[in-house]
Amino acid sequence: MVDEADLALVVGLGNPGPQYAGNRHNVGFLVVDELAARLGGKFKAHKGGADVVEGRLGGRRAVLAKPRTFMNLSGGPVAGTARFYKIPLPALVVVHDELDLPYGTVRLKLGGGENGHNGLRSITKSLGGKDYYRVRFGVGRPPGRMDPADYVLKDFSGVERKELAFQVDRCADAVEALLGKGLEAAQNEFH
Predict the structure, then answer these.
(1) Which of 34, 45, 93, 163 is 20 to 30 A from 170, alpha carbon to alpha carbon?
(2) Is 2 within the bounds of a domain?
(3) Is 84 labelled as part of a ligand binding site?
């Protein structure tokens, strides 16, 4: 299970504002929104720099958070929220988009590199370590010569949107499995 600590922090990465809501880069927000809906909770502004909702997921207490900064500056709000709730690195789960995985693929891991993901880079720098859990939602590679930064800031395609609710729901299930059953069991179920 995610650390021995009773309380876990689940952070969804994205960019604030309605103009980014349907972007591939905002899939982390979509997943924590789904988890909040399962809790019946509404996000509220928190002094740590993120919007949060508290409840129980996977049989344990959890705080869901969405940083109020742009993706590249996520580290400050994540670190501030983690400090407020006294969350150690191994009790942190970050849900984010992943270019190196086909659309809809979900992969879970502990630690590792940032693969060029500026949100993860900011979090690692602000927390001073990489040993937190990542739930990676595949968005696929950009077509042709499109810049990856432009690609992740575009909305999901029409074909992708048809399956998006299902894929987000499945990724939320993976987060709950990680919290309740641990990394290996969750990987066996979702990989």
Answers:
(1) 45
(2) no
(3) no
Catalytically annotated residues:
25
Using one digit for the tens of pLDDT, what is the confidence trace for 50-77?
A: 999 999 998 899 999 999 999 999 999 9
Give the chain's residues under pLDDT 70.
1-5
Number of domains in the chain: 1
- pLDDT on residue 5: 57
Q: Where are the alpha helices (DSSP H) in 128-157?
A: 148-152
In this prediction, residue 116 carries a pLDDT of 79
Report how far residue 31's alpha carbon sits from residue 27's, in angstroms, rounded to the nearest whole number. Answer: 6
pTM over 0.85, yes/no: yes
In a domain, 143, yes or no: yes
Domain for residue 100, yes or no?
yes
Query: Which regions of 19-158 does DSSP assign to beta strands (E)?
Result: 44-45, 50-57, 60-67, 92-98, 106-110, 133-138
Residue 70, annotated ligand binder? yes
Whether residue 72 is annotated as binding a ligand: the answer is: yes
How far does Cα 47 stand from its chain's mean position?
20
Say if CB 94 and CB 120 are below 8 A apart.
Answer: yes
Domain range for 41: 8-190
Say whether 133 counts as a known binding-site residue. Answer: no
Distance (Å, whole) CA 57 – CA 45 = 20
- Max intra-chain CA distance, the chain: 46
**Residue 3 covered by a domain:** no
Query: The CATH number of the domain where 155 resides is what?
Result: 3.40.50.1470
